[in-house]
Write a structure and sequence with these properties.
Layout: E1 2-5, E2 8-11, H1 15-26, E3 31-34, H2 39-43, E4 50-51, H3 53-61, H4 66-71, E5 73-75, E6 77-82, E7 85-90, H5 91-94, E8 100-102, H6 105-118, E9 123-124, E10 128-133, E11 141-146, E12 149-154, E13 157-160, H7 167-170, E14 178-193, E15 203-207, E16 210-216, E17 222-229, H8 239-249, H9 252-257, E18 263-277, E19 280-281, E20 284-286, E21 292-293, H10 301-322, H11 331-353, H12 366-381, H13 384-395
Parallel strand pairs: 1-12, 2-3, 2-13, 3-9, 6-15, 13-20
Antiparallel strand pairs: 4-8, 5-8, 6-7, 10-11, 11-12, 14-17, 14-18, 15-16, 16-17, 18-21, 19-20
Helix pairs in contact: 1-6, 1-10, 10-11
């Protein structure tokens, strides 16, 4: 068996694992990343791209912001359209100058991969049978197989950045973790196309036909979503059918501007809220989707992962630079406070903007529940105070300092 040694082992080479590795390396902290799939597969994942200021600042701190700063689009606000009537959420004005940046998660991942390769940092792709061992001892380690060779990786700490289906969360004994979950009765049918976006900023649409989102990746690439039943199948949706339905849910002036074209990718994503508590077990720290999932309505998934990375990187810097090993106990409480804020906002936005059918929701029939949500949305959108509540959470709450 081949034996390796590092200070921090990172499981998962998605954006959170790569960003954590880059931040640690810049502080002189050794790290090795282990990923079960290929780098090409990681880059093939289609994900969101609305970045909070905190995430943008982390990327700059990691020294990989050149392309993001030159190609990313600053968004000063977004629209919420209710049955064709548009309300503008002016993020910059309502938050005292804060904005978000539109830059695709795939591009962030590409930049981080390139930086890691340029720095000569070790990453083991296509690692199978990854297992975590001795997490409550002074000698935690990973074992895996790569290119037919068995490998043991000794380390001080393990960052589980391997997503909802990864091995890290399952390495915490089931009786010691509490998992909270809300599965929504609908999904998002997403379409990616090389067509100019319908608007300079995002449009969230609530209509009698269901929710829609007009998003963008760049000035020439668009991403659109439709609320569909979870029993639906992507094969039921031709490109033409998608575009026709989207036009019916967009405000009229936006529908008239819509440029259609062949899809590059089309898929249905389920919506769920999920949190695992605690986010730490001995030498293991859960990061991002390994610990929490949010519905994409509030653009919080990648951004919550970034706040986890920020907290963990600062903790590990204190461990190695100040020999303060007790500070690791701060990780889960600090991370979870921000996670629950993001979960609540995403749940709230999902309830406000989607149409519910059939089953009882929160103790009432769907028609009554939809009326309550229409009233709540009307209240928030028709006052500066209400729009400010939405704006402050959308741009992201501050990162909590260590004690």
């Amino acid at each position: 068996m081949k034996t390796l040694k590092t200070q921090v082992a990172i499981v998962g080479a998605g954006p959170s694992g790569l960003l954590l590795g880059q931040l640690l390396a810049r502080q002189g902290i050794d790290n090795i990343i282990v990923e079960r799939v290929s780098g090409e597969y990681v880059l093939g994942r289609i994900r969101a791209g609305i970045l909070e200021q905190g995430f943008v600042d982390l990327v700059r701190e990691a020294g990989v912001a050149e392309r993001m700063d030159s190609e990313g689009e600053v968004h000063n606000g977004f629209d919420i359209a209710v049955n064709g009537r548009s309300f503008h959420i002016d993020l910059k004005t309502l938050t005292g100058g804060k904005t978000v940046l539109c830059y695709g998660q795939t591009e962030i991942t590409r930049d981080l991969m390139a930086a890691r390769a340029a720095a000569g940092l070790e990453t083991y792709y296509e690692a199978s049978d990854v297992a975590l061992h001795d997490l409550k001892t002074e000698s935690p380690h990973l074992t895996f197989e790569q290119a037919g060779e068995a490998v043991r990786l000794d380390c001080d700490y393990i960052a589980g950045c391997d997503g909802f289906h990864g091995v890290s969360r399952r390495s915490i004994p089931e009786e010691l973790r509490t998992e909270h979950e809300r599965v929504y009765p609908f999904g998002w049918l997403g379409l990616l196309a090389d067509t100019p976006p319908v608007a300079e900023e995002l449009i969230y649409c609530k209509s009698e036909r269901g929710f829609a989102l007009a998003s963008r990746r760049s000035s020439t690439r668009s991403r659109y979503y439709l609320q569909v039943s979870m029993t639906d199948d992507v094969e039921n949706w031709s490109d033409e059918a998608f575009w026709e339905e989207l036009k019916k849910r967009l405000p009229e002036e936006a529908a008239e501007r819509l440029v259609t074209g062949p899809s590059l990718e089309k898929s249905i994503a389920p919506l769920r809220s999920f949190v695992c508590e605690p986010m730490q077990y001995g030498a293991l720290f859960l990061v991002g989707d390994a610990a929490h999932i949010v519905p994409p309505t509030g653009a919080k998934g990648l951004n919550l992962a970034a706040s986890d990375v920020s907290t963990l990187s600062r903790i590990l810097q204190r461990v190695y630079q100040q020999n303060d090993r007790a500070c690791v106990e701060q990780y889960s409480p600090i991370a979870l406070r921000r996670v629950w804020h993001g979960e609540r906002f995403s749940w709230w936005m999902s309830n406000l903007l989607h149409s519910f059918n059939g089953d009882e929701i929160n103790g009432m029939d769907a028609a009554t529940y939809n009326r309550f949500m229409h009233s709540e949305l009307d209240y928030y959108l028709n006052s500066d105070e209400g729009r400010a509540v939405i704006a402050r959470q959308y741009v992201g709450l501050p990162y909590e300092a260590l004690h």
